[in-house]
Write a structure and sequence with these properties.
The protein contains two helices and no strands. It has about 70 residues and is mainly α. The chain is elongated.
Length: about 70
């Protein structure tokens, strides 16, 4: 699998929490995409589209927080 993050020397609890949340969000996004691909009912398709969009926004938020945390920490 690809390395998404550089090796961080930090052992800060906040940093680790951000990483954990990001990984959970990636797993949720993967699951939402799988559900979307297997949905046949139009209402379910709509709900999965909204779910994917919401999870993508959460992912972007967490990724920006993680990057700003890495920049702030020397």
């Amino acid at each position: 699998m690809f390395r998404l993050f550089k090796q961080a020397p930090q052992t800060d609890a906040n940093y680790q929490s951000l990483l954990d949340n990001l990984m959970q969000t990636m797993n949720s996004l993967h699951l939402a995409y799988e559900n979307f691909e297997n949905a046949t009912d139009p209402e379910l398709i709509d709900s999965y589209i909204y779910e994917v969009n919401a999870i993508q926004m959460r992912y972007q938020f967490l990724l920006c927080r993680l990057k700003s945390y890495e920049i702030a920490e020397p």
